[in-house]
């Protein structure tokens, strides 16, 4: 047979993998069938309803409902017989359950054309259509119970290609599952042989079991190696592909002249391939750890069982099985050493990931504390891993030391025959000279002893560092617990403070709104009532004067210093009283008339420091003019301009109240008799020099100051320093560890 034919026989092209659990049903469903005879089609109409799904569908949302809960189809007698053959092939119990359908003949074209023939109608009336339909319903229900819901529904109702693909498995997944099943079966064989140790009657029978156990373990190692190599292959390909693309892109960047956009795109592509390669390496490390975990666990179980068997026999008889025991210890130490080295790489990767997460400033203080605790835990695992590595290295060294010592002992106990000599001194010289093999073994023994001493020293150093790491971990745990308790304790106070702030903000908003409303009302009132003013005394009453005393006929600038009195005595008394007293602006009330015949008492106090305005216009002639304030000087009072100034100042005060503060302006009065035009330039310069220059306060630039750090940044830096203090020594000693190369693979 040619090689092409053999490759063709081993090829899986055209084959499909069928799932082993395609008909497994995790849930039970209540299925109902309705069967009726269709006279037109001369076939049985079969309808199937999934009652369980229909009840669940009513409770679900319309968007999440399943598509199909009912099925229907037309089946002839021959179709139902074919279905019965399939069901009976699965379960023989259904052979006697199928009803007799010989009375139902298939219709022909003439029966369809001449359906109204009396013969056909009489035959249809004579047929018993009810009992066969009920028997078919019972038959389908029994088939559901015996064969299963999925087989019955898929047989009765046709499926499309997409549904048929559900029966097949992916070839790659099928191969992986088959290899995994082989590994599981090999482990089970090892466990079954280990259980058979108790049934061994003697040492010779036990030695045969040991030989069988070694063979089964070799099969386990071979199957596990094949399985994990299959799992590693995609990640190895990805690692090689990433390295290849990375080298090609770097060559393009180095030797080709490219534009800035193309260079940036290639650099991003290099980063992406580096990330994929790193992910592939991480996956390879994880799979390697899984492999050595399986092998080391199996060897540990085998060694434990052999130690138990050792107690059943004496030392002399057990000497026969002693080489295998030493071999198991050596193999276990080697596999555990490889396992710990692979685990060490994973732990270092985990530490680097925690460091990268901690450098992110978007995290909170509690997350930083949690990451620091995770780092301490990873560091403790790394210390345990390193101690285990040193322990297994020491076991391997001890095994090699025992081997060398046994070889030296054998050389010493070896009988050497010399030729006869006459001088005894010559014999002593021959005995003093050591053989080259003995010198080589002594040198190897010294080297192994030095490696063992270095390993013991490293173990002691690692124990001390681990104790320091445990102390730092416990301290950080206490700090985190205290911080969490403090946060919980002050959380209620913080909530109350926030609630109080919200209430204060709402109250300020309400006050601001009311202030705006008040300002708008005052402003509208001033605009409506501007220009109509009337002065009166607090105790005066309005009096009618006649036709000439009309408010509408008076100008807006008229100021009444006193109300008119009836009689000459009152007016003379008023003149006599007012002569002795000069009226002050504060003594003059202001009355704002609202209209003819109506007044409102709004009193304004004018500013005393305001300069007097020019005298008002003379009033029009009338029968009873108002009396002057004094005889010596005319009545001059700030009337309209003063009121306008008062109104303007109140607007400013209200506006300043709205802003929350009152701003006062400093007035520098000019010296009397000196004009600004006549002042010299030198005097102005001298006065400016005396006053000095007012410096403006420069606001600080927005953004955080480069010199100050936030609490989060300080906590991150402190945590990084503590983590570095715990782990820097262990990281430095990775390169200084003395490792024997005799057991490296």
UniProtKB/TrEMBL annotation:
Intracellular or extracellular location(s): Cytoplasmic vesicle membrane
Molecular function, one GO term: actin binding
Region (Disordered): 599-625, 724-745
Pro residues bias spans: 608-625
Predominant location: membrane
PROSITE patterns named in the record: WH2
Positions in coiled-coil regions: 373-414, 485-516
Residues in WH2 domain copies: 681-698
Pfam families: JMY, WH2, WHAMM-JMY_N
Keyword Iron annotated: no
Gene Ontology CC terms: cytoplasmic vesicle membrane; endoplasmic reticulum-Golgi intermediate compartment membrane
One of the GO BP terms on file: Arp2/3 complex-mediated actin nucleation
Signal peptide residue numbers: none
Annotated keywords: Actin-binding, Coiled coil, Cytoplasm, Cytoplasmic vesicle, Membrane
Protein name per Swiss-Prot or TrEMBL: WH2 domain-containing protein
Organism (species): Electrophorus voltai
């Amino acid at each position: 047979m040619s090689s092409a034919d053999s490759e063709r026989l081993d090829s899986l092209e055209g084959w499909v993998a069928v799932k082993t659990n395609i008909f497994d049903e995790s849930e039970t469903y209540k299925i109902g069938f309705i069967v009726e005879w269709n006279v037109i089609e001369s076939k049985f109409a079969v309808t199937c309803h999934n009652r369980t799904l229909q009840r669940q569908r009513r409770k679900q949302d319309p968007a999440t409902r399943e598509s199909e809960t009912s099925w229907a189809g037309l089946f002839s007698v021959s179709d139902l017989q074919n279905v019965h053959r399939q069901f009976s092939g699965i379960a023989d119990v259904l052979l006697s359950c199928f009803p007799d359908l010989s009375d139902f003949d298939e219709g022909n074209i003439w029966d369809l054309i001449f359906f109204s023939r009396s013969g056909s109608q009489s035959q249809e009336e004579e047929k018993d259509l009810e009992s066969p339909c009920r028997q078919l319903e019972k038959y389908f229900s029994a088939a559901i119970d015996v064969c299963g819901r999925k087989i019955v529904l898929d047989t009765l109702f046709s499926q499309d290609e997409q549904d048929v693909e559900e029966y097949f498995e992916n070839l790659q997944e099928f191969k992986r599952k088959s290899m995994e099943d082989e590994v599981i079966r090999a482990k089970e064989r090892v466990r079954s042989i280990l259980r058979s140790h108790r049934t061994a009657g003697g040492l010779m029978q036990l030695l045969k079991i040991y030989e069988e156990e070694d063979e089964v373990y070799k099969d386990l190692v071979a199957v596990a190696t094949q399985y994990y190599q299959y799992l590693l292959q995609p990640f190895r390909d990805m690692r090689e592909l990433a390295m290849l693309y990375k080298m090609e892109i770097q060559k393009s960047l180095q030797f080709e002249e490219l534009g800035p956009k193309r260079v940036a795109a290639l650099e991003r592509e290099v980063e992406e391939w580096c990330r994929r390669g790193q992910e592939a390496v991480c996956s390879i490390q994880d799979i390697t750890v899984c492999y050595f975990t399986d092998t080391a666990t199996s060897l540990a179980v085998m060694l434990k069982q052999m130690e138990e068997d050792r107690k059943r026999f004496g030392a002399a008889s057990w000497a026969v099985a002693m080489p295998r025991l030493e071999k198991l210890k050596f193999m276990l130490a080697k596999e555990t050493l490889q396992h710990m080295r692979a685990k060490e790489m994973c732990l270092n990767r985990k530490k680097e990931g925690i460091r990268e997460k901690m450098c992110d400033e978007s995290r909170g203080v509690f997350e930083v504390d949690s990451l620091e605790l995770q780092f301490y835990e990873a560091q403790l695992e790394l210390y345990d891993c390193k101690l285990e590595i040193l322990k297994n290295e020491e076991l391997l060294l001890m095994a090699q030391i025992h081997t060398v010592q046994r070889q030296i002992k054998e050389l010493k106990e070896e009988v050497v025959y010399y030729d006869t000599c006459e001088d005894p001194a010559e014999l002593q010289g021959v005995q003093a000279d050591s053989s080259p093999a003995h010198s080589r073994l002594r040198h190897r023994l010294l080297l192994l002893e030095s490696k063992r001493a270095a390993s013991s020293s490293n173990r002691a150093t690692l124990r001390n560092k681990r104790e320091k790491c445990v102390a730092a971990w416990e301290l950080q745990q206490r700090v985190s617990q205290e911080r969490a308790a403090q946060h919980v304790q002050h959380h209620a106070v913080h909530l109350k403070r926030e609630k109080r702030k919200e209430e204060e903000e709402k109250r300020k908003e309400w006050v601001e709104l009311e202030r705006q409303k008040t300002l708008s009302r005052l402003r509208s009132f001033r605009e409506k009532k501007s220009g109509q003013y009337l002065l009166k005394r607090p105790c005066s009453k309005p009096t009618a004067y006649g036709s000439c005393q009309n408010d509408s006929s008076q100008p807006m600038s008229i100021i009444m210093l006193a109300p008119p009195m009836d009689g000459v005595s009152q007016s003379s008394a008023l003149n006599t009283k007012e002569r002795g007293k000069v009226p002050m602006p504060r003594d003059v009330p202001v009355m704002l008339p609202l209209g003819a015949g109506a007044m409102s008492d709004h009193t304004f106090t004018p500013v005393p420091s305001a300069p007097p305005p020019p005298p008002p216009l003379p009033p029009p002639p009338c029968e009873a003019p108002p009396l002057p304030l004094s005889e010596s000087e005319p009545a001059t009072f700030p009337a309209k301009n003063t009121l306008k100034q008062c109104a303007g100042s109140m607007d400013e005060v209200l506006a300043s109240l709205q802003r929350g503060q009152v701003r006062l302006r400093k007035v520098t009065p000019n010296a009397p008799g000196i004009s600004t035009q006549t002042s010299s330039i030198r005097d102005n310069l001298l006065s400016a020099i005396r006053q000095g220059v007012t410096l403006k306060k420069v606001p600080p630039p927005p953004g955080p100051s480069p010199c100050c750090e936030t609490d989060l940044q300080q906590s991150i830096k402190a945590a990084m320093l503590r983590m570095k203090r715990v782990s820097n020594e262990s990281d430095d000693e990775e390169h200084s560890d003395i490792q024997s190369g005799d057991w490296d693979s």
